[in-house]
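Take a specimen:
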Amino acid sequence: MRPVAPSAVSGILLAGMGVLAFSFSFPGTVWALDGFGPWSAIGVRGVIAAILAAAGLLLMRGPVPARQDWAALGVVALGCAVGFPLLTTLALQTSSTAHSAVVIGALPMVTASISAWRTRKRYSALFWVAAGLGALAVITFTLTQNHGRPTLADLYLFGALVLCAAGYAEGGRLSAHMAGWRVIAWGVLLATPINLAVAAWALTVEPLHLTPTAVGGMLYIACVSQFLGFVLWYRGMGVIGVARASQLQLAQPLLTLLWAVLLMGETLPAAVPLTAVAVLGCIVATQRART
């Protein structure tokens, strides 16, 4: 058995902390919807995250990205700062937190696939088999909850995971030569015009009730889900690679399910323990697979 390098351990820990931060995103979104309309929640979270990103760039004197990096940053903005927040918020209007979490469980496999295509790296058969089995486990779990038929919310979530996977793959690729916090900071700033326009329009047409739950949820999804979690996530991806880091996210739907039960009182499906064993086994296999 090959020893794990200290840098790889730090990368796994950073990426894992990012996954933990993201696992609260769906509960945070539901809490924000307690007082914000769906479009207001989408726009306001993006504007708050942009303010935080701009402050970080100014304080740290982050340099302007190289010209060849702007296209990839555009993908980060579209996938992680616009598409994913938009589509998941719309999905959570009709879908439970637990159900949404397991649909997004296919994200690691999509991320690894896009990364392999973009970087033209070859990964071992064991890696792909383990990743595929992990994705299959969470997808099967999802479909059994809906009697095998996807809903409109599922379609929103599928679109969200494709866009987010593209943003993860491009952001992870950039993090190999650019600080992870700068990657998400510039991505968030690029999305600011869209989010600012959405917020300005939505706040005039949707009701607003600033309850403690709504404010707390909004602050979390804006500051942590939209920015600080990505700082950890992209840093970890830059150290251990996009494909391997993405497989750690197989644990995210299970963590979100736990928060759905403990924090939101949702019913835990009986299949969760079996899914947990399968997913954790796949994570171990992908981390040890040679690339």
The chain has one domain: 6-288.
